[in-house]
Design goal:
By secondary structure, the protein is α+β, with helices and mostly antiparallel strands. It contains seven helices and 18 strands. The strands form six sheets. Strands 6-7-14-10-11 form a five-stranded antiparallel β-sheet, with helices on one face. It binds uridine-diphosphate-2(N-acetylglucosaminyl) butyric acid. The site of uridine-diphosphate-2(N-acetylglucosaminyl) butyric acid has 15 residues, from α6.
């Protein structure tokens, strides 16, 4: 979708929003798949309510794009413009056991920044690509921990109310890869409370998690992490592996040889290839094991 109306372009500039026209989402997603649209780079979060209402008034559909690391997007000219937060400097502030973190902050860098201030707990998240906002929205987790456990406050744009709000951690439910945020809420910042731990000890935990991840996940290939959620009491990766599907492909979309719940863009995979591979694997798992696998990756397919 393109923003051409001079009146809208002028209003965006008044709101301090930078409009970049014709951006390929293939370049803004870890899978390297996705069509083209206009992207609005937002610096001043306080203007978000005005920005969204401006877009609504002009019938311009929008979606929020964070780090793009857990996303599979259709191709062609996309029917939505993207909102994207520009990362401020600094993006983390520490006070005692609290870390105030901007949603656009890189998750891994935040974990190491907090570690340097002797604040631990998030070692498992090292190596999870993406922003803190994305991790918050999905309740990212690994190696027995999840970010939701440390959340004390969240600043967000509440789409239903059309305004910025601050929620207490206790007002938000964090479940396995699921939160009570509405799909169109936009995360802006989070206050985490982290346990004190000596830097060296945290670093040791980070090394162990990094090593586990390197040995079991295809880190240097284009993917969106695990494609499916694990059903209660079962492992999607193990089931796909047991079906002998490692290396199984549709076009350049391929089940990773290293971890069967990671699907790789091995070259020029199209969105259609990836959707077809996902549907095929889901059906085979259903037929063999009786589990209806749920997507872990977010699909933007209309
Ligand atoms: N397994 C296989 N073959 C495979 C992959 C896994 O047999 O190809 C077996 C493993 O040997 C292990 C079991 O399946 O016994 C579980 O595998 P793993 O420890 O790799 O964890 P997972 O359940 O597949 C989950 C998360 C990951 C997270 C890891 C580490 C989900 C869907 N996945 O994977 O998160 O990094 O645990 O804690 O919850 C993500 O969210 O994108 C993601 C990758």
């Amino acid at each position: 979708m393109r923003i051409n109306e001079p009146q809208v372009v002028a209003a965006l500039s008044d709101l301090g929003v930078e409009l970049r026209s014709g951006v390929a989402l293939a370049d803004m997603t870890s899978l390297g798949i996705g069509g083209t649209t206009d992207v609005l780079f937002i610096r001043q979060r306080k203007h978000l309510p005005e920005l969204v209402s401006l877009l609504q008034q002009h019938g311009i559909a929008h979606r929020f794009l964070g780090g793009g690391t857990n996303l599979l997007v259709i191709e062609g000219e996309l029917p939505w413009v993207m909102l994207h937060l520009v990362r401020p400097e600094p993006d983390v502030r520490i006070e005692g056991n609290f870390a105030w973190v901007d949603a656009a902050a890189d998750l891994g860098r935040t974990v190491t920044f907090c570690a340097k201030h002797d604040l631990g707990g998030m070692e498992g998240l090292i190596g999870v690509p993406g922003t803190v906002g994305g991790a918050l929205r999905m309740n990212a987790g690994a190696y027995g921990m999840q970010i939701g456990s440390y959340v004390r406050e969240v600043e967000l744009y509440r789409a239903a109310a059309g305004r910025l709000e601050t929620l207490r951690g206790s007002e938000i439910s964090f479940e396995y890869r699921h939160t009570s945020f509405a799909p169109d809420d936009i995360m802006l910042a989070v206050k985490l409370e982290l346990p004190s731990k000596p830097y060296r000890e945290i670093l040791q935990g980070i090394r162990v998690c990094n090593e586990k991840r390197r040995s079991s996940q295809p880190l240097n290939q284009k993917s969106a992490g695990c494609i499916f959620k694990n059903p209660a009491g079962a492992s999607a990766g193990r089931m796909i592996d047991e079906l002998g599907l490692k290396g199984h492909s549709v076009g350049d979309a391929r089940v990773s040889d290293r971890h069967a719940n990671f699907f790789i863009n091995a070259g020029h995979a199209s969105a259609a290839d990836m959707f077809a591979l996902i549907a095929d694997v889901r059906e085979r798992v259903r037929a063999a094991f009786g589990f209806e696998l749920e997507n872990e990756v977010v699909f933007w397919n209309g």
